[in-house]
Here is the input.
Amino acid sequence: MRRVSKSLTALLTICAMLFALLPATVFAAAPAMISLNVSAGVFEPAFNPDQDNAKLFVDYKTDNITLTPAADGTISINDQSVPSGSASAPISIQYGYTQIPISIKNDGGTKTYTVTVYRPNVPDL
Here is the structure.
């Protein structure tokens, strides 16, 4: 019985040592957007951080927008770093569809969102 107890203690000690060596990334939460605000246009349907894709509709006169993301982690929009809670640089919007990638990176990994902006070439009547 004493021998089993020593073996069990040794095994638990080894497990504890291995657990301490695991990188923090194993336990980090996956990155996620908290909110996303836009300078112009309307999300349809409303922006949902649980969805990877969002559709934004802007007026035909809108030739650029800014996005203001909030997230835990490093954010980049069109490969440009943007601090959480700050507006992006102006993003040019062409007639038709423009896709804007948003990447969030933290110790838990990387998540990419895509905002597809639709700009009509004539006014809605």
